[in-house]
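ok trying again, last paste got cut off:
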Amino acid sequence: MKKKDGFKDEKYIALPIKNEIDYTKHPLINGTYITELGLYPSAKYHYRERMEGIDENIFIYCMEGSGVIELLHNKIIQLNAGEIFCIPAKTPHRYYALSENPWSIIWIHFVSDMMDLFGDDKITISSPEKKHLLQTHFINLLQISEKEFSQHHFIVISKLLSLILAETYLLEDKVSFDKQNQYLSKCIRYMNENINQELTLKQLAHHLKISQSYLSTIFKKYTQQSPIEFLIHLKIDQACKYMKMTDLKIYEIAKKVGYEDAYYFSRLFKKYTGLSPKVYRAQMEGIISNGKSG
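nice, full thing came through this time. structure:
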Protein backbone atom coordinates (compact mmCIF):
# COMPACT_ATOMS: atom_id res chain seq x y z
CA MET A 1 0.00 0.00 0.00
CA LYS A 2 1.29 3.46 -0.95
CA LYS A 3 -0.10 6.90 -0.08
CA LYS A 4 1.02 10.33 -1.18
CA ASP A 5 -1.23 12.07 1.37
CA GLY A 6 -4.35 11.56 3.49
CA PHE A 7 -2.70 11.14 6.89
CA LYS A 8 -4.44 11.86 10.18
CA ASP A 9 -3.91 15.48 11.31
CA GLU A 10 -1.92 16.32 8.19
CA LYS A 11 -1.60 19.88 6.93
CA TYR A 12 -1.13 20.87 3.31
CA ILE A 13 -0.92 24.41 1.92
CA ALA A 14 -0.37 25.45 -1.69
CA LEU A 15 0.36 29.15 -2.12
CA PRO A 16 -1.41 30.66 -5.17
CA ILE A 17 1.83 31.97 -6.69
CA LYS A 18 0.74 31.52 -10.30
CA ASN A 19 -2.05 34.05 -9.75
CA GLU A 20 0.32 36.58 -8.16
CA ILE A 21 3.58 36.02 -10.04
CA ASP A 22 4.62 39.66 -9.47
CA TYR A 23 4.95 38.89 -5.76
CA THR A 24 8.02 36.77 -6.51
CA LYS A 25 9.78 39.76 -8.08
CA HIS A 26 9.54 41.93 -4.97
CA PRO A 27 13.07 42.97 -3.85
CA LEU A 28 12.49 41.64 -0.32
CA ILE A 29 11.83 38.15 -1.69
CA ASN A 30 15.39 37.97 -3.05
CA GLY A 31 14.78 34.89 -5.18
CA THR A 32 13.72 32.62 -2.29
CA TYR A 33 10.08 31.69 -1.79
CA ILE A 34 7.72 28.80 -1.01
CA THR A 35 5.19 27.27 -3.40
CA GLU A 36 3.83 24.44 -1.20
CA LEU A 37 4.37 23.09 2.29
CA GLY A 38 2.91 20.50 4.59
CA LEU A 39 3.05 18.49 7.79
CA TYR A 40 2.57 14.71 7.60
CA PRO A 41 2.50 13.14 11.10
CA SER A 42 3.04 9.36 11.47
CA ALA A 43 2.86 9.03 7.69
CA LYS A 44 2.47 5.26 7.40
CA TYR A 45 2.68 4.03 3.77
CA HIS A 46 3.82 7.48 2.62
CA TYR A 47 5.40 7.22 -0.84
CA ARG A 48 6.24 9.75 -3.55
CA GLU A 49 8.00 9.12 -6.85
CA ARG A 50 8.89 11.77 -9.44
CA MET A 51 11.12 10.40 -12.18
CA GLU A 52 11.47 13.83 -13.80
CA GLY A 53 11.85 15.72 -10.53
CA ILE A 54 9.93 18.97 -10.00
CA ASP A 55 10.68 22.63 -10.68
CA GLU A 56 11.20 23.41 -6.99
CA ASN A 57 13.64 22.20 -4.35
CA ILE A 58 12.16 19.91 -1.69
CA PHE A 59 13.12 20.47 1.95
CA ILE A 60 12.27 17.50 4.20
CA TYR A 61 12.64 17.65 7.98
CA CYS A 62 12.08 14.35 9.79
CA MET A 63 10.73 15.05 13.28
CA GLU A 64 10.07 11.44 14.31
CA GLY A 65 10.49 7.96 12.87
CA SER A 66 12.43 7.18 9.71
CA GLY A 67 12.14 7.24 5.94
CA VAL A 68 14.26 6.80 2.85
CA ILE A 69 15.13 9.18 0.00
CA GLU A 70 16.48 7.71 -3.24
CA LEU A 71 18.18 9.86 -5.89
CA LEU A 72 20.00 9.28 -9.17
CA HIS A 73 23.10 7.05 -9.34
CA ASN A 74 21.80 4.84 -6.50
CA LYS A 75 22.27 7.53 -3.86
CA ILE A 76 20.17 6.40 -0.89
CA ILE A 77 19.68 8.50 2.25
CA GLN A 78 17.94 7.17 5.34
CA LEU A 79 16.39 10.12 7.13
CA ASN A 80 15.89 9.69 10.87
CA ALA A 81 14.43 11.88 13.60
CA GLY A 82 16.20 15.25 13.78
CA GLU A 83 17.60 15.05 10.24
CA ILE A 84 17.04 17.26 7.21
CA PHE A 85 17.65 16.70 3.52
CA CYS A 86 17.06 18.95 0.54
CA ILE A 87 16.32 17.46 -2.91
CA PRO A 88 17.47 19.88 -5.64
CA ALA A 89 15.00 21.01 -8.31
CA LYS A 90 14.61 18.77 -11.38
CA THR A 91 16.31 15.84 -9.64
CA PRO A 92 14.59 12.47 -10.24
CA HIS A 93 13.71 10.96 -6.87
CA ARG A 94 11.51 8.80 -4.73
CA TYR A 95 10.99 8.89 -0.99
CA TYR A 96 8.96 6.87 1.45
CA ALA A 97 8.32 6.17 5.13
CA LEU A 98 9.77 3.02 6.67
CA SER A 99 6.92 0.65 7.52
CA GLU A 100 8.22 -0.37 10.95
CA ASN A 101 8.72 3.22 12.16
CA PRO A 102 7.07 5.65 9.71
CA TRP A 103 8.33 9.19 9.70
CA SER A 104 6.60 12.41 10.71
CA ILE A 105 7.83 15.12 8.36
CA ILE A 106 7.55 18.77 7.58
CA TRP A 107 8.18 19.35 3.88
CA ILE A 108 8.55 22.52 1.82
CA HIS A 109 8.66 23.02 -1.94
CA PHE A 110 10.64 26.19 -2.57
CA VAL A 111 12.55 28.22 -5.14
CA SER A 112 15.97 29.61 -4.23
CA ASP A 113 19.10 31.03 -5.83
CA MET A 114 21.18 29.75 -2.89
CA MET A 115 21.12 25.99 -3.54
CA ASP A 116 24.91 25.83 -4.02
CA LEU A 117 25.28 26.66 -0.32
CA PHE A 118 23.28 23.66 0.81
CA GLY A 119 25.44 20.76 -0.32
CA ASP A 120 24.13 17.25 -0.91
CA ASP A 121 24.39 15.64 2.52
CA LYS A 122 21.74 15.33 5.16
CA ILE A 123 21.99 17.68 8.12
CA THR A 124 21.65 16.41 11.68
CA ILE A 125 19.98 18.73 14.18
CA SER A 126 21.36 17.35 17.43
CA SER A 127 20.91 20.11 20.00
CA PRO A 128 17.46 20.25 21.71
CA GLU A 129 17.58 24.06 21.59
CA LYS A 130 18.02 24.13 17.83
CA LYS A 131 15.31 21.50 17.31
CA HIS A 132 12.91 23.59 19.37
CA LEU A 133 13.87 26.75 17.48
CA LEU A 134 13.38 25.16 14.06
CA GLN A 135 10.06 23.58 15.02
CA THR A 136 8.87 26.97 16.29
CA HIS A 137 9.80 28.51 12.92
CA PHE A 138 7.90 25.73 11.11
CA ILE A 139 4.79 26.24 13.25
CA ASN A 140 4.90 29.98 12.53
CA LEU A 141 5.40 29.25 8.85
CA LEU A 142 2.35 26.96 8.71
CA GLN A 143 0.19 29.39 10.69
CA ILE A 144 1.05 32.39 8.51
CA SER A 145 0.65 30.33 5.31
CA GLU A 146 -2.90 29.42 6.37
CA LYS A 147 -3.90 33.09 6.53
CA GLU A 148 -5.50 34.92 3.62
CA PHE A 149 -2.87 35.23 0.90
CA SER A 150 -1.37 38.70 0.42
CA GLN A 151 1.92 40.21 -0.65
CA HIS A 152 2.70 41.10 2.96
CA HIS A 153 2.19 37.51 4.12
CA PHE A 154 4.16 36.20 1.13
CA ILE A 155 7.16 38.37 2.10
CA VAL A 156 6.97 37.26 5.76
CA ILE A 157 6.78 33.59 4.67
CA SER A 158 9.78 34.09 2.38
CA LYS A 159 11.81 35.66 5.19
CA LEU A 160 10.90 32.83 7.56
CA LEU A 161 12.05 30.32 4.94
CA SER A 162 15.35 32.19 4.53
CA LEU A 163 15.79 32.10 8.31
CA ILE A 164 15.13 28.34 8.42
CA LEU A 165 17.59 27.70 5.59
CA ALA A 166 20.27 29.89 7.19
CA GLU A 167 19.91 28.26 10.60
CA THR A 168 19.94 24.80 9.02
CA TYR A 169 22.82 25.13 6.57
CA LEU A 170 24.92 28.11 7.62
CA LEU A 171 24.81 27.66 11.40
CA GLU A 172 25.33 23.92 11.36
CA ASP A 173 25.74 21.57 14.30
CA LYS A 174 29.14 20.13 15.20
CA VAL A 175 28.21 16.87 13.43
CA SER A 176 28.00 18.67 10.08
CA PHE A 177 31.07 20.77 10.88
CA ASP A 178 33.08 17.60 11.53
CA LYS A 179 31.80 16.01 8.33
CA GLN A 180 32.89 19.02 6.27
CA ASN A 181 36.32 18.94 7.89
CA GLN A 182 36.59 15.26 6.98
CA TYR A 183 35.78 16.07 3.35
CA LEU A 184 38.33 18.88 3.37
CA SER A 185 41.10 16.75 4.88
CA LYS A 186 40.37 13.82 2.59
CA CYS A 187 40.41 16.08 -0.48
CA ILE A 188 43.71 17.76 0.45
CA ARG A 189 45.27 14.36 1.11
CA TYR A 190 44.07 13.16 -2.31
CA MET A 191 45.51 16.30 -3.93
CA ASN A 192 48.90 15.70 -2.32
CA GLU A 193 48.92 12.02 -3.26
CA ASN A 194 48.15 12.92 -6.89
CA ILE A 195 50.18 16.13 -7.18
CA ASN A 196 51.63 14.83 -10.47
CA GLN A 197 48.18 14.56 -12.07
CA GLU A 198 46.02 17.18 -13.80
CA LEU A 199 43.07 16.87 -11.44
CA THR A 200 39.73 18.53 -12.21
CA LEU A 201 36.99 19.69 -9.87
CA LYS A 202 34.82 16.88 -11.23
CA GLN A 203 37.46 14.26 -10.33
CA LEU A 204 37.91 15.66 -6.82
CA ALA A 205 34.17 15.66 -6.15
CA HIS A 206 33.79 12.17 -7.60
CA HIS A 207 36.53 10.87 -5.29
CA LEU A 208 34.64 12.24 -2.26
CA LYS A 209 31.22 11.20 -3.64
CA ILE A 210 29.81 14.72 -3.19
CA SER A 211 28.71 17.38 -5.67
CA GLN A 212 31.15 19.84 -7.23
CA SER A 213 29.18 22.78 -5.84
CA TYR A 214 29.26 21.37 -2.29
CA LEU A 215 33.01 20.76 -2.50
CA SER A 216 33.52 24.33 -3.71
CA THR A 217 31.38 25.63 -0.84
CA ILE A 218 33.47 23.72 1.75
CA PHE A 219 36.76 25.05 0.35
CA LYS A 220 35.49 28.63 0.16
CA LYS A 221 34.21 28.36 3.73
CA TYR A 222 37.43 27.01 5.27
CA THR A 223 40.23 28.18 2.94
CA GLN A 224 38.71 31.22 1.14
CA GLN A 225 39.84 29.55 -2.11
CA SER A 226 38.24 27.32 -4.70
CA PRO A 227 39.44 23.68 -4.73
CA ILE A 228 41.40 24.27 -7.95
CA GLU A 229 43.05 27.44 -6.60
CA PHE A 230 44.06 25.51 -3.49
CA LEU A 231 45.43 22.68 -5.66
CA ILE A 232 47.48 25.13 -7.75
CA HIS A 233 49.04 26.53 -4.57
CA LEU A 234 49.99 23.00 -3.50
CA LYS A 235 51.55 22.34 -6.92
CA ILE A 236 53.50 25.60 -6.91
CA ASP A 237 54.71 24.93 -3.37
CA GLN A 238 55.89 21.46 -4.40
CA ALA A 239 57.60 22.91 -7.49
CA CYS A 240 59.46 25.37 -5.24
CA LYS A 241 60.74 22.45 -3.17
CA TYR A 242 61.98 20.66 -6.29
CA MET A 243 63.83 23.82 -7.38
CA LYS A 244 65.50 24.19 -3.99
CA MET A 245 66.39 20.55 -3.44
CA THR A 246 67.00 19.00 -6.88
CA ASP A 247 68.76 19.70 -10.16
CA LEU A 248 65.69 18.78 -12.22
CA LYS A 249 65.09 20.93 -15.28
CA ILE A 250 62.06 23.23 -15.32
CA TYR A 251 60.13 21.06 -17.78
CA GLU A 252 60.80 18.00 -15.59
CA ILE A 253 59.51 19.81 -12.52
CA ALA A 254 56.45 20.90 -14.48
CA LYS A 255 55.65 17.26 -15.27
CA LYS A 256 56.21 16.22 -11.67
CA VAL A 257 53.47 18.62 -10.54
CA GLY A 258 51.03 17.68 -13.29
CA TYR A 259 51.74 20.13 -16.12
CA GLU A 260 52.76 18.71 -19.50
CA ASP A 261 53.15 22.21 -20.95
CA ALA A 262 56.27 23.77 -19.41
CA TYR A 263 55.41 27.22 -20.82
CA TYR A 264 51.99 27.15 -19.18
CA PHE A 265 53.61 26.02 -15.92
CA SER A 266 56.10 28.91 -16.10
CA ARG A 267 53.31 31.46 -16.61
CA LEU A 268 51.34 29.98 -13.73
CA PHE A 269 54.42 29.91 -11.49
CA LYS A 270 55.13 33.58 -12.13
CA LYS A 271 51.49 34.49 -11.54
CA TYR A 272 51.54 32.89 -8.08
CA THR A 273 55.09 33.72 -6.94
CA GLY A 274 55.87 36.92 -8.84
CA LEU A 275 59.01 35.29 -10.30
CA SER A 276 59.69 33.05 -13.26
CA PRO A 277 60.94 29.54 -12.34
CA LYS A 278 64.39 30.43 -13.66
CA VAL A 279 64.68 33.60 -11.56
CA TYR A 280 63.23 31.86 -8.49
CA ARG A 281 65.79 29.05 -8.75
CA ALA A 282 68.66 31.53 -9.23
CA GLN A 283 67.57 33.43 -6.12
CA MET A 284 67.33 30.22 -4.09
CA GLU A 285 70.77 29.12 -5.25
CA GLY A 286 72.16 32.52 -4.25
CA ILE A 287 70.62 32.27 -0.79
CA ILE A 288 71.94 28.74 -0.27
CA SER A 289 75.42 29.70 -1.54
CA ASN A 290 75.61 32.78 0.70
CA GLY A 291 74.53 30.71 3.65
CA LYS A 292 77.38 28.20 3.32
CA SER A 293 80.34 28.63 5.69
CA GLY A 294 83.80 28.92 4.13
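cool. The chain has nine helices and ten strands. The CA atoms of residues 219 and 226 lie 6 Å apart.
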